[in-house]
Structure formats: C-alpha cells, structure tokens
Amino acid sequence: MATADRAAPRKGSGGGLGFLYDERVRSVVYQVICAGVFGWLVWYLFTNTSRNLDARGMSSGFGFLFTTAGFNTDFSLIPYAAGGTYLRVFVVGILNTLLVSVLSIIATTILGFVIGVLRLSSNWLIARLALAYVEIIRNVPLLLQIVFWYVGVFALLPRVKQSIGVLDISFLNNRGMFMPAPVFGDLFWATVVAFFLAIVIAVGIKRWARRRQELTGQQFPVFIVSLAIYVFLPLIVFFARGSPLTWDVPLLQGFNFQGGMRLPPAFLALFVALSIYHASHLAEAVRAGILSVSKGQTEAASSLGLPPGKTMKLIIIPQAMRAIVPPLISNCMNVVKNSSLAVAIGYSDIVALFMQTALNQSGYAIEIVAMTMGFYFVISVSISAVLNVYNKRVQIKER
Amino acid sequence: MTAIASDQDTGQKKAPKIQISVLSWLRENLFSTWYNVVFTVIGIYIVYAVITALWDWGFVNAVWEAKDRRDCFNINKARGQPPGACWAGVTTWMTNFMYGRYPRTELWRIDLGGILLAIWMAPIWLPRVKGKIIIAFSVVFLYPFLAGYLFSGGERGVFMQVMVSAAIVMLTAIVVHSLISLITGRTLPALLVSALGLAALSEKMQRNALLALAALAFALVFWWQSGWLVPEVNWVNWGGLFLTLVISGIGIAFALPGGITLALGRRSKLPVVRVLSTGFIEIFRSVPLITVLFMATTMFPLFLPEGFILNKLVQVIVAVCLFNACYMAETVRAGLQAIPKGQYEAAHAMGLGYWQMMGFVVMPQALKYMIPNIVGSFIGLLKDTTLVSIIGLFDFLSMLRAVSQDVPWRGLHYEPIMFGAVVFFILCASMSKYSRHLEIKLGGGANR
C-alpha cells in the first residue's frame, strides 16, 4: 500500500510538519519567498544606488532635461543646434530612429515579399539564388554588415566635386545623399484633405459594392474605381489650387551642395543593411506562409472554376497572410530594435545621441537609461497591441 | 493461398520510374515559359558576374605576401593587374583576430582550453559511451572553472583550487571511461569494480569504494595542482574570436537553464511568480541588446555596494546572460505549449509531483520540439556578441575593424570584413545544419 502511505501526509494530518505538504500552504509560502526576495533585491539596489550617488556627489531627477546640451548633431529632422535642451536631444534621437526604422520597414517588406516568392519560383535557378541570398545574409551578423556598408561602400564614395548624379537632381558622395526637398505652398493642405476624402469615398464604395453583390450577385470593379479616385481627386484639387508645391533642388556651390535635403552616409549604410538583413528573415516567413496553405485549397478553387489569378487573390493570399502577418510585425519590431546599432557607425539615433553622447555629457545615467528603454518599451507594446488586434480579427472562427 | 499478394499474382505493375533527360529537366525547370527564360538569363548573368568578380578580386589578383598595403598595390602594378584583395594584411593580423592582445607567449593556454573542451565533449557524440547526461552536466558546471583559470591565471584561492582539481579528475575519468567504453563496451565503474575484485560486495559497498577511490584521485590531483601556477593575464588583453566565443559560450551555457526557469515561472500557477517572470521577460525582450549593454556598463557600478568593482567583461557577460535567458524563455514556452494537455494530466494521474512531471514527462518531449528554435537562439546569440565591440571590448569584430587603423594597412576595409563574414558564416551555417540533422534524428515523434 505504498501509494496510500505517500498520499497520507498530503491531507495535512500527518503530524507536526504535515501542513507543509498542503498544496495551498506551499503555494502561499513559495509566493511569499519570491515576493520577499524580489522586494529585498529592489531595496538593496535602491539603497546602494542612492549611497553611490551621494558618495560621488551626483544629483538625480529629470530637471537636467531642461538644461542646455553642449553638443551638436550632424543630422536632425527638426531644427537643432548646440545649446538646445536635453529634451530636444531626446526628441531628435527618437525622430532619427523612427525615420530610419520606417524607411527600412517599407524597403524590407517589399524586398522580403519578393525574395520569399522567388524562393518558391518554379524556376530552379531563381529559387536557388533566393536561397543563397537568405542563407548568406542570415548567417552573417548584422553589425558586420552595417560596418561593411558604412566603411566599405558609403564612406568610400567620391568627393563632393565628383558626385554621382542621378538625373541631375540627386547626388551621392562621401557626405551622403543630396536630394530635392519639397517646399509646400500655402494651399497644399487642400491636397492632403482631398487625399483623406478619397480614402473615405473608396471605403464607402467598397462597402456599397459588397452589399450590392450580396443582394444581387452583381460585381462592381472596386479596385479600378478606387484607384482612380485615389489618383485623380488629389490631383484635381492640386492643380485647381495652382500647384502649390515646388522642389528645392540641391546645387553645387563651392565645396558643398546648397539647398535640398541631405541623408548622411551612416544613415544610408544603416538603411541598406537593415533592409537587406531583415528581408532575409521576412522571406522565410513569407515562404512558410504560402506553403502553409494546403494544396487542397488550390484544387478546390480550380474545381469551382476560378482562374489562377483569382485563386491567388481570393483563396491563397488571404489565408497565407494569416500566417505571414505575425512574423511580419515582429520583424518590424526587430527593425526598430536593430536600428540601435546605428551607434557603431555614428548615425545620431536615440542610442547614439541620447544614451551615449548625452549620458557622457550629463552623467544622469539612471534617468537616461530609463528614458531610452522606456521609448523602446512603448514602441514594442504598441506594436504587439496592433498584432493582437489583427490576430483577433483573422483568427479562424471555429464553429 | 499466398500470404502476401505479390505483383505477379494480381497482375498489377509498379508505377514506371519517371525518366527525366537533362534536356527535359532544363525545359521544365529553367525555360518553361517566356518569362522563365528571361529570369534564367538574368539569373545566369548575376551568378556569372558575382562569381567572376569575387574570383578575380579574391584569387586571381590577390596578393598573399606583402609588408604593407602600398606593397600590395605595387605588386599588382608590377604584375600588370588591377588591384585585388590584399590578403597579406589579414594573414599578418591573424593572431590578433584569433586571440586579441593576449600575451603571445601564453597563447598555448587558449589552445589547450579549446582542446580540453573538445576532448570533454567528444564522448557526447560517441554512440557507445554511456552516461552522456553526466558528461554534459560536467561540461557546463566544471569546465568553466578549469578554462577560466587557464585563461586568466594568477594566484588561485581555495575554492578555485578545489574546482580546478575536481574538473581535472572529472576530465580524466571521462577520457578513461570513454576509451574503455570504445574498446570493451563496459563502463569505467563496472571495470573498476571487477578489476579491484569488489564484485562480491553489496552495491552500497561498491559505491562507497568507488567514492573513496574518487576522493583519493581528487587528493592526488589537489596536491599536484598546488605546485603549478600560470602567470596572470588581465581580461583587458582578452580579445579576438577567443573573446567572442567565451562570451557567447557562457551566454549559451546560461541561457538554457535560465530560460527554462523563467519559462516555468511564466507558466506557473502562482500569481506572484508568474507576474515577476512575465515582467522580467517582457522588459528585456522589448529593448535592444545594446541598451542593455549600456545599462550594464553605466548602472551596475551604481547598483553594487561601494568599493565593489565589477570589471567590464563581467558586466557584459551578466547582461548577455540575462538578455538571452529572456529570449530562450519564450522559445521554451513555445515548446511547452506544444505539449498536449493530456501529458500533464497523465503525469498528475500517475502521482508525479511538479518537478517530476516537468523533468521526466514534459521537458524531454518539449526539448525535442524546441531544438531548431534553441539552436536558432544560439546562432542569434553568437551573432549578437559582436555588439560588445560597441562598448569597447576588443572582440573579433573590433579586431577586424582595427586593421584599417594600423599604419601599414591603413584603409584596408574589405579584406578583414570578408574574412570575418566567412568565419561567422561557417560557424552559424554549421550550427544550423547540425540542428536540422538533430531534428531529423530525434524526429520529435512527428514522423510516426
């Protein structure tokens, strides 16, 4: 009766220490121990930190954000010069991080889908080339690739005098890429409003067309019509208002370009490396997503008489997207996080500008680390919130 | 009344083997439609252009021996070639790439450390050797002390002496045990028992005798090791691929146990444990590694009691371990979720406690599911280790970048980066290849 013997103490009646075997008592004890250790750790670190700060005569608090930072940055989206506040440095860093992240996310998504589809190409050579791309890029550290693009490509471009011109409006040289900058006229806002109006109209047409199809079975060319609305409505407004947009083209004057906007070489290197690296990860997700749609779906669609194009559009892609979007969104998250490697090549993102330069200048380690990590934490939480909403929407409704 | 109907009986024929000629294969796979023809032509051109460019640059026009970069150009000019790869810079710097600024007279210690690790781990891949779990655990828990002492050297305290001696005893036992297993197919304890004529004794007495023998060996080794000493090498001089492998090796060794602990904590029924684990995992997973490294170097000195100074290498290793444990925790959690609930319920029905259920029923199955992802995390960890170059450790990548700052090789960028890319590619690709092999070998029960 070995089992009965072992089971006996669990009831809590087996002598003085028997209550220790009660599961509820145990769980409470474990949790109290955990909370106690955690609380002690927090208290210990806190007292150490405040004692250390006192010993070094360092002050703390967020007041430093409104003092002036004595350094300049070579690239910023909002006007910034040495003498701005640390808060402004923080904003400049955030904007620079977001700029490179958003552009890289767009490029990596396009490239990733293309490579992912090429991986499944019926053409043996193309499929193999895409595989080689994925394997080589995935197995080399991103930081090494960023360094390669920076010191090996963009820092070795010709000097300003020998710039590589693209259509004589954009110029590439070792100071970066010079591009025309848009100059918005007074009435440009009307075009923007027209574009948003076009979105509203297109959504309305789509709803109406769906309802009509459900009622009468008649189809309406939604895609063509909404495309026309997207293109023509803003254009008409734009020209009706007397085309209130001009371009500020960079011009070579003396030793440098004047006018236009400039993207520094570090930005270009980071953008190219991030796009190429993350595209290789996304390509695998796209491939897996397309393969996850079972062959029966294609067969069923063709037995219903759907042509291949419609099969792809109505049957395969909607189902594949369900598997592709979660890795796609976590890939976006990784692009934002990996853009922090900018610090290795000196692009002024939030880590390089705020966590490195501003921290070294001001010495407010705890506040600056907390703010930087807080920024990434907020981005990550919002991206996963989007992912959760999407997952809820596309989940297979099981009956 | 034949039991098995053969082909002749039923008159059925096997499906004919599909014969594909080279030409029809080409037509099927490369030239099936007009756009495939275009694609193929473009593809052939890309392959041709890339391979010839790399071949010309890296081999045909390459210079393997020169005293500086200018010399490389001159040699190319004398040969009447366009400038190619100047591999001379890479070969001159090879020792730096591998060992950083480690004293040149002491390099044998790193080599010896690597060889000992290979010897220690080799039995895990030998099918005839028993006791692989003990060997694996001893690698994780004893080898770091031996290697750590070999690499850093200097005076060692009593604790270090004990651990080093234990490691040496264990390593010797494993080598002898493996050799015996390979030759005779028996285990070391069994052979010792019969050799010493103890077979007649009870099992308990046999075990005691073996333990006494181990203690004797330990005493001998302890006495022997107290006689030698290797000179101290400051961690500042550690560098190159050696440092990269040390950091990622410690990270890998810590990530799995740390990740399993955190994952179990996150799935725990106890709310306090669950909330603490989840918060820890989510905070570390939502920030980039480089911010964690900066946090480690700027905030650890503030966290610790006054006068207690942690060197930068230890700070970095702690940061890398914490960071990767959190990523591993999510991998492990995914594996745990793949185990059907029936397994948990069956384990409970058998009367197993929590740790028995996890250790004997759930984890062995979950780990099989997880292998590809675990190896994927290890590869990520190895690649991420290059980030320590940003905060000023002289790892492999910073050594590669340093070449272009060296006066004779000023401006030599491509060659070291190419070399580094090839090294990382070989390391990472072989790891992922091995994980695919393991996946097929273990099967995970999915192939049944």
Structure, explained:
The complex is a heterodimer of chains A (399) and B (448). Chain A has 399 residues and is of the alpha+beta class. Chain A folds into 3 domains: 54 residues; 241 residues, MetI-like (MetI-like fold, Orthogonal Bundle); 68 residues, no CATH class. Chain A has a 4-stranded antiparallel beta sheet with strand order 1-2-3-8. A two-stranded antiparallel ribbon of chain A has the order 4-5. Chain A has a two-stranded antiparallel ribbon with strand order 6-7. In chain A, a hairpin with a 3-residue loop joins strand 1 and strand 2. In chain A, helix 3 runs antiparallel to helix 4 and helix 6 packs antiparallel against helix 7. Chain A is globular, with a radius of gyration of 29 Å. Chain B has 448 residues and is mainly alpha-helical. Chain B has one domain: MetI-like fold (Orthogonal Bundle). Helix content of chain B is 70%, strand content 0%. Chain B has 20 helices and no strands. Chain B is globular. The N terminus of chain B is likely disordered. At the A-B interface, helix 1, helix 2, helix 4, helix 5 and helix 11 of A face helix 3, helix 14, helix 15, helix 18 and helix 19 of B.
Dominant shape of chain A: globular
Give the assembly state of these chains.
Answer: heterodimer
- Counted by DSSP, the helix tally of chain B is 20
CATH level 1 class label of the largest domain in chain A: Mainly Alpha
What is the element layout, followed by pairings?
The complex is a heterodimer of chains A (399) and B (448).
Chain A: H1 2-7, H2 23-56, H3 86-119, H4 124-138, H5 142-153, E1 164-166, E2 170-173, E3 176-179, E4 181-184, H6 188-216, H7 222-240, E5 245-248, E6 251-253, E7 256-258, E8 261-263, H8 265-292, H9 295-303, H10 308-338, H11 350-362, H12 365-394
Antiparallel strand pairs in A: 1-2, 2-3, 3-8, 4-5, 6-7
Helix pairs in contact in A: 3-4, 3-8, 3-10, 3-11, 4-8, 5-8, 6-7, 8-10, 9-10, 10-12, 11-12
Chain B: H1 7-10, H2 22-29, H3 34-60, H4 69-79, H5 87-92, H6 94-99, H7 107-121, H8 132-141, H9 143-152, H10 158-184, H11 188-195, H12 203-225, H13 240-266, H14 271-286, H15 289-303, H16 312-337, H17 341-349, H18 354-384, H19 396-402, H20 414-442
